[in-house]
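Workshop exercise sheet. Pairs work together: one partner reads the sequence aloud, the other fills in the structure field after running the prediction. Swap roles for the next sheet.
Pair: D.N. / O.F.
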Amino acid sequence: MATHRPCERRRRLAATTTTPQTNKKRKTDGPTSSRITLPDDLIVEVLVRLPARSLARLRCAGRSWDAEISSRGFQERHHVLAAAAAPKFAFLPPAIPHTVFTEAWFPRSRGPGLLPLTCRPCPRVVTPKPCRGVVLIARPCSAAATFSLANPTTGEVLHVPSSRHKFGGPASLVTGIGFDAAAGEYKLVQVSVELESLHARVLTVGDERGWRAAAGNPPANSFGFTQHAGIDVHIQPVFADGCLHWSFKTDRRYIDMPHGIVSFSLAGESFRRAPQPPFSTADLVPYDFQEHPPYHAQLLRGCLGKRSGSDEEVAAPAGTALAELDGRLCMMRDVRHRGDVGGLFEVWRLHDYEAGSWSLDCRIELTPGRMADRLTTPWLVVPLRYLDDGGAPGAKRKLLLATSEQEAHVYDPDTATLLTVAAVSAPADLNDSLRLVMYHESLVRFAGMKQAKDKILCNLSDGYKRLDYSQ
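Structure field:
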């Protein structure tokens, strides 16, 4: 985002009142008007609390207001105040089902070919939390995996150039978005593991150079990858602590082998490795596909693997996910299928990258029943943020959750209850991904952003069920 020079002067807010007129003539005995001038700092305090759409109109009131509202300091203050307010929700509607072709190996012809598939869940949201007001939307079924950046507040969209990555195809690339606070820049980063090495490409939004190799690409095999290593495409990347994070597998054949987390610094564009919590390979259990809905059974087959040593077929927990809470990296542990572990989910927080120390931050427990079904039925449950709602001193903070059933809930750990705050009806075959997006007021606007012809992100006040949660 461009930084504007400080305004030389600001337009004065004035309230003008005139005395009543008789026969369309003004009275001349006394003042004809009174003028009230507000201090500049008070004007700024009023402006910084206005919604983004109102500020977009006020930028047209004069050059001084345009410079003030567009300045980096004003937008930073507006972001901080908006982030502290109660969250809003938007929904990403699916596209019309369409046919795509993917590369496949055909045993009869003993060669590669194109296999037609019906794409239903396209487009997709990359993480249900915006990166400082910006939502990354992916269309992975396209030939080059296209992306768009959207501001749910203003409804503006910027289509991102495709990455011509020479390693692998769109299915092997995992893309995330982060914010370089020092430079004030948004960056998209694609990573993949090919030829036992970690490869990354970076796109700085607004940079005419487009996609480029990361400045700090690690040396070949510096992470100890084997030919069977790979980024876990089932766990979405997360931006926290100034870094983007991806989960990877050291061996995709045996899913009980040690896993880890790749961390990419947006400022230095350098990589480091952080271990996953100790439970990451301990929660693997055999799955009985008869116990799950047909569509979930299909999804579980994508998470199947073998246990090293015994070759027992097991599947990774469906609800394991990376998350950002209070600016720190967290991981959601899914224990819904563990009879020997209490609760449904656990939230773990990373304290030290070098030591790899994690601690339990929150445990989600519900009494079996309709309330618990809201979290046991979905394929995926992701924590969005803690809510400071002014509870009693010493009370635990409530946790806002989003599920792949396109619902948002507030979990109260003190009462072990769940409150549904947003919900959207969606077809069952879309319930493997999150389409409900939490957002706040945002002034972010990139050069080239335009209003979408069709609504990409629908605010839940536009015909969808919305249950307000007041802090």
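Discussion prompt: Confidence is low (pLDDT under 50) at residues 1-31, 167-171, 462-471. What would you look at next?
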